[in-house]
Specification:
The complex is a heterodimer.
Chain A: H1 4-19, H2 22-27, E1 33-39, E2 45-51, E3 54-55, E4 59-60, E5 68-72, H3 74-82, H4 87-92, E6 97-100, H5 102-117
Parallel strand pairs in A: 1-5
Antiparallel strand pairs in A: 1-2, 2-3, 2-4, 5-6
Chain B: E1 2-5, E2 8-11, H1 15-26, E3 31-34, E4 46-48, E5 54-56, E6 61-62, H2 67-76, E7 80-82, E8 88-93, E9 96-100, H3 109-126, H4 140-145, H5 148-155, H6 159-173, H7 182-191, H8 195-199, E10 208-210, H9 216-225, E11 229-230, E12 235-240, E13 245-249, E14 259-263, E15 265-269, H10 272-275, E16 279-281, H11 286-293, E17 300-307, E18 317-323, E19 330-333, E20 342-349, H12 351-355, H13 361-376, E21 385-390, H14 409-413, E22 424-427, H15 439-458
Parallel strand pairs in B: 1-14, 2-3, 2-15, 3-11, 8-18, 12-16, 15-22
Antiparallel strand pairs in B: 4-5, 6-10, 7-10, 8-9, 12-13, 13-14, 17-20, 17-21, 18-19, 19-20
The chains are: A alpha+beta, B alpha/beta.
Bound molecules: flavin-adenine dinucleotide.
Flavin-adenine dinucleotide is lined by residues 11-17, 34-37, 42-44, 58-61, 234-235, 269-271, 274, 278, 300, 302, 391, 396-397, 400-402, 428-429, 437-439, 442 of chain B.
């Protein structure tokens, strides 16, 4: 189990790497979205905003209306952001779920794989 | 010569023809379905092997968004179960074997990232294609003059990334990337929710299988249609006027007398390349015939190796392969839900399928087993049995999984795909807008053609 602070710390690290990654920035073109993260075990909720090809800082709670909702265990969120977990593997096993419009799911799916591979 | 009459004749009892027939019967129309084979289902065919394994020789998977097929499966009680995906896949590249987790082989992370970006760019571009009129897409002409192969060569610099995409594309289309119009590729991807979606097991087109085989819903529809379905009844000629169609059924040698079927409307529910093998009178309009000349069937052989148990699972492998060498370059764990047998399913696609076209089934089986040994170890050499279906040799399919549209087809001839010719209407998965190439697309194409016929008969 990972608490809110751990997830926030891991995300901060991931965010820097993503925002410095040219390939990822290309893939985020024209894609401003609000993404909710829901930890299935702790019930913790976060909001990530993508704007102008950049990831914003992690916000607690899920107040705004989301385009996409990602669910995973708190541990998996932390591991994912630390770059220790291949999101494709957990998506394939059904342990990570993505909900949203098909094109948005496709984008997030692809960019999370690239973030892992280019880490 | 025996004479029969009906209001609407359907040629072909694949999922498209069966779905059209059901819809017409529901509208109170008198229907006959002439099917060349001694079974329904067309490109979907389930048998039980000598050791008792349920084998789908053709179409087998169902995935999210394939709602028509799911609804039909629910209605007839055909149970589905998830494709086995637990564990790692095997990547074979440059004579090296490695294992990987997730969708994409990762032995070379930079190549994998390039591959994902390329898939992403294709999927993004596909969202610009209007499904009902791909010829109206932005840059339609320029895209229809390119092939997926030329796009890959120009866009994707990493050979590893090209290899990953090529392996996926070959098993999806049964052809080499250089044979696919880029515009058609983008249309097809959009129609099935993107290449990522088409390549995936979980959350994608290979997510689930039918416990009793994918032909089960077709048999259910045939049962409902009862003696309206005429098996072993190949149509050899169609004569059409303004409001009548006459089809000649020439049964195989042992099969009795020829039959002449008169109808007011006809739905031809088969791939374009097969529909022009009928003797048409008057000849089909040039545009329709030329469209069919540009829509060859892909080249695919499906091989099932049946073992006493899925031994690869013991080593943490999920049976999936992505390879750049050998006859089989993509494989899956095709074991039954209770794992009473272990079954490896391999696809021989594109050039490899053509190279083995003249081989005997035993020779193809040998090539497949050599590949499985390379991927899964020596135990793969001793299956209980090997079953194969070489689709190019099937008289009433002549390839698969789908027709592939050559450059110039969509922009030069596109509307002729669905435009009726007098009283003749066109169905078949190749005419579908959603899930083109898939069973679900076959079902929707049948509904669309049936609606045309219902409207025409009401006039
Ligand atoms: C190896 C393989 C794997 C596949 N995998 C999948 C999958 O996993 N999931 C999926 O959704 N789809 C899959 N597909 C595709 C799917 O099988 C097809 O999209 C679908 O079955 C097409 O249905 P249809 O009715 O349009 O055409 P068909 O099934 O081809 O039906 C045409 C019918 O017309 C009949 N016919 C032909 N000529 C004549 C004639 N002269 N007179 C009378 N009848 C005639 C044929 O016998 C046939 O029954 C696969 C296909 C293959 C070959």
């Amino acid at each position: 189990m990972a608490d809110r602070d751990e997830i926030a710390e891991a995300y901060a690290d991931w965010r820097i790497r993503c925002n410095e990654n040219d390939r990822l920035r290309r893939m985020l073109r024209g894609w401003d979205r609000v993404v909710h993260l829901v930890a299935t075990d702790t019930g913790d909720r976060f909001t990530v905003e993508v704007r102008d090809q950049m990831l914003a800082e992690l916000a607690g709670g899920t107040d705004a209306v989301a385009d996409l909702v990602v669910t995973a265990t708190s541990e998996d969120f932390a591991d994912l952001f630390w770059g220790d977990l291949n999101p494709s593997e957990k998506y394939m096993s059904g342990e990570i779920t993505l909900a949203g419009a098909q094109e948005d799911v496709m984008r997030l799916d692809a960019m999370s794989m690239v973030a892992f591979l280019d880490r | 010569m025996q004479d029969r009459e009906c209001e609407a004749l359907i040629v072909g009892a694949g999922y498209a023809g069966l779905s059209a027939a059901r819809e017409l019967v529901r509208a109170g129309i008198d229907v006959l379905v002439a099917e060349a084979r001694d079974r329904v289902g067309g490109r979907v065919w389930t048998t039980t092997s000598p050791t008792g394994a349920v084998i789908d020789h053709g179409g087998q998977w169902i995935g999210p968004g394939q709602d028509l097929l799911q609804k039909l499966a629910d209605e007839c009680g055909a149970e589905t179960f998830p494709t086995f995906t637990t564990g790692e896949g095997v990547e074979w590249r440059d004579e090296n074997r490695t294992t990987y987790a997730g969708l994409i082989p990762t032995s070379d992370p930079a190549a994998a990232a390039d591959g994902i970006e390329a898939i992403f760019e294709l999927d993004l571009a596909s969202t610009e294609i209007p499904l009902d009129a791909p010829w109206d897409a932005p840059d339609a002409r320029a895209r229809d003059e390119q092939t997926l192969g030329s796009w890959l060569a120009a866009t994707v610099s990493s050979p590893g990334a090209r290899a990953i995409i090529t392996a996926a594309v070959k098993s999806i289309f049964g052809t080499e990337p250089g044979e696919l119009s880029l515009l058609f590729t983008l249309f097809y991807l959009r129609s099935g929710g993107g290449l990522m979606n088409l390549a995936r097991t979980t959350n994608g087109a290979q997510e689930r299988r039918f416990a009793g085989g994918a032909q089960q819903p077709a048999l259910y529809l045939a049962d409902e249609l009862a003696d309206r379905v005429l098996l072993s009844s190949p149509v050899t000629a169609i004569t059409y006027g303004a409001d009548t169609v006459t089809a000649i059924v020439t049964p195989p040698e042992s099969g009795g007398d020829p039959v002449r079927i008169r109808a007011r409307r006809c739905i031809v529910a088969m791939p374009p390349a097969l529909s022009v093998r009928l003797d048409w009178s008057p000849p089909l309009p040039g545009r329709r015939d030329q469209l069919s000349m540009r829509a060859p069937m892909g080249s695919v052989t499906k091989i099932h190796a049946v073992y006493d148990r899925p031994f690869w699972r013991d080593e943490g492998l999920n049976g999936q392969v992505v390879s750049d060498e050998g006859a089989i370059r993509v494989s899956f764990d095709d074991s039954p839900p209770d794992a009473a047998h272990g079954i490896l399913l391999g696809f021989i696609a594109g050039d490899e399928c053509r190279a083995l076209d003249a081989a005997t089934p035993a020779q193809r089986a040998q090539a497949a087993l050599a590949d499985f040994v390379r991927y899964f170890g020596p135990r793969a050499a001793s299956p209980l049995e090997v079953l194969e279906r070489h689709w190019p040799a099937e008289p009433y399919t002549r390839g698969g999984p789908v027709a592939v549209f050559s450059p110039g087809l969509l922009t030069g001839f596109g509307p002729a795909l669905r435009d009726p010719v007098g009283p003749v209407h066109w169905a078949g998965t190749e005419t579908a807008t959603e899930w083109c190439g898939y069973i679900d697309g076959a079902l929707s194409s049948g509904l669309r053609a049936a609606a045309e016929v219902i409207a025409a008969l009401a006039r």
